[in-house]
Specification:
alpha+beta, binds fe (ii) ion, 3 helices, Jelly Rolls, 12 strands, three-stranded antiparallel sheet
Length: 195
């Protein structure tokens, strides 16, 4: 019998806490978390475990872990085939977005206006990159983006540098109506990875 997904995840948290502890600049911490995330999302035990994780359609995010000392958060999202995510940012958080199963496309958008008109935002698509299982994207603070599901079910594990929900508002953009609204982010549904 191989290592359990729970043990793999717990090891990841131990290593992530070592990176987060020394108070290095956030960009350095993120660059050290990146290979840890790549190892996590490509681990055979994790890839097997996510097959039974519940869809998060209409739920928000699964909440896998909140660090009691450093406030980083690990979420998961399980998308139905063809699911289109909205255009949004994550305010001042760094986010590492790692695909465990399926394919997804990460769109990056650019804001064209100066933000001086309340509720107005003009954004245009800058790039779109398709990720396959094992791929981890880094989304910097205030980067405007959208995650789009692929033709099959897809599962991602998301590392957030700080807890946002209930703490800070994030922007949601509508490229059709050129509007922006502030919202508190996805609902957090606690989820235990089985031992
Ligand atoms: Fe996002």
């Amino acid at each position: 019998m191989g290592t359990s997904a729970r043990a793999v995840f717990d090891d990841f948290i131990v290593e992530a806490r070592k990176v987060w502890g020394p108070q290095a600049p956030m960009s350095e911490r993120v660059s050290q978390i990146l290979p840890l995330m790549q190892g996590l999302v490509s681990h055979p035990a994790i890839r097997e475990a996510v097959k039974s994780w519940p869809s998060t359609e209409g739920v928000g995010n699964l909440l896998l872990y909140t660090d009691p000392d450093y406030d980083f958060v690990v979420n998961a999202v399980v998308r139905d085939p063809g699911r289109k995510g909205s255009v949004h940012d994550h305010a001042d958080a760094w986010v590492l977005y790692g695909l465990v199963e399926g394919t997804e496309t990460l769109e990056r958008w650019r804001r064209l206006d100066d933000g001086s008109v309340p509720g107005y935002a003009k954004v245009e698509l800058e790039s779109a990159s398709r990720g396959v299982a094992g791929h981890v994207d880094v989304v910097s603070p205030n980067d405007i983006h959208a995650e789009l599901g692929g033709p099959d079910r897809s599962v991602a594990i998301i590392f957030r540098s700080v807890r946002l929900v209930g703490r800070v508002l994030q922007n949601g953009y509508d490229p059709v109506t050129n509007t922006v609204i502030q919202r508190s982010g996805p609902n957090q549904a606690p989820f235990e990875i089985a031992a």
